[in-house]
Amino acid sequence: MAVTVRIPTPLRTLTGGADEVLMEGGTVSEVIERLEASHPGMKDRLCDDKGVRRFVNIYANDEDIRFLDNLETALKDGDTLSIVPAIAGGALF
After folding, report:
1. Model's pTM, two decimal places?
2. What is the fold of 2-85?
3. What is the 3-state secondary structure (H, E, C) of the chain?
């Protein structure tokens, strides 16, 4: 099943500049493994030994996977997986 993965600007160096890639996989974890196989270095930037890195958000069809089944979130043909780096900052007063 083909899933569209939206790649944020900071990670596009790994995808040859592509802002979207098509990947196969039935879960988020499987898609990340295939991303790593096709674009080495991707998994390291997305995950650590505890799962998805703290300052990385991954959305399956606009739903944060942390509120679904995390890396085991099921995907189906035509789904979209969006990788979004978290933005931190403070108020400007």
Report:
1. 0.90
2. Ubiquitin-like (UB roll) (3.10.20)
3. CEEEEECCHHHCCCCCCCCEEEEECCEHHHHHHHHHHHCCCHHHHHEECCEECCCEEEEECCEEHHHCCHHHCECCCCCEEEEEECCCCCCCC
